[in-house]
């Protein structure tokens, strides 16, 4: 018999994620701790257990995100499941998956307008199960770069125009380094915030990066990078690391300075070459919709994959209101820029 619980043994959960073929940082207890200390973030952690033995059959780590507290938060809340749910192979695992998601929706109790499942691997084996529960699939591209090889091979795969950009960044004097202390998160965040405003996208509070630094730095699961030109910070990037997978999490650069992103990405690739397994570019949008940085990511020569996403709307009227609000937000910020 399968039992769903929010009270579980933390060590058993972490071991399950660590030993799972698709185990990733977003499904760890450590990431739940990060979310718990982030403003307007609320983690949900649920496990499916074999009642008799207590064996974990599946886990689900989600986070409810609100753009603000109060009324604004209630009409902007969404639940994101990154890299999950994780479940054991076979019929028992699929049964646990269905029970886990059914319980999750009751547990959610109208706290989110919709749920989005962001896949980090192919989910063909569970697609029917997710569809039967009302989760609709849509394509979503990404680029993966193999890191477990010499730096020279990685360089050889990068398209010529991108290599030129990297060389020009070096010539103009852009230097890339990791942050030296917690205080430099402010510099990192400031650049990311500026970038998100330019493209008119909402951004998590700085407490997300501060909490991630506090909880993931000692274990080596996170790196913060700064790009410096003539003493000024002109770019930043934050990556998460777990079991050889380097996930490109947040990035930003000054619009008026060229080749910053080329410099930072190449610095990271060369640093991780031969030490980690895969660099995950963090998504490249729907293949049939414009996505500004897709070409940038593509020209680093990684493998194009289409693992897609699933979405289930829990409150359709609020979802329509959220979409209208997002369009208004983008127009308002565009007006400010102009």
TrEMBL record:
GO biological process: cell wall macromolecule biosynthetic process; cell wall organization; regulation of cell shape
Origin: domain of life: Archaea
Domain BioF2-like acetyltransferase: residue ranges: 163-287
Keyword list, A-Z: Acyltransferase, Cell shape, Cell wall biogenesis/degradation, Peptidoglycan synthesis, Transferase
PANTHER family in the cross-refs: LIPID II:GLYCINE GLYCYLTRANSFERASE
Family under the similarity heading: Belongs to the FemABX family.
Name by which UniProt lists this protein: BioF2-like acetyltransferase domain-containing protein
Organism: Methanosarcina mazei (strain ATCC BAA-159 / DSM 3647 / Goe1 / Go1 / JCM 11833 / OCM 88) (Methanosarcina frisia)
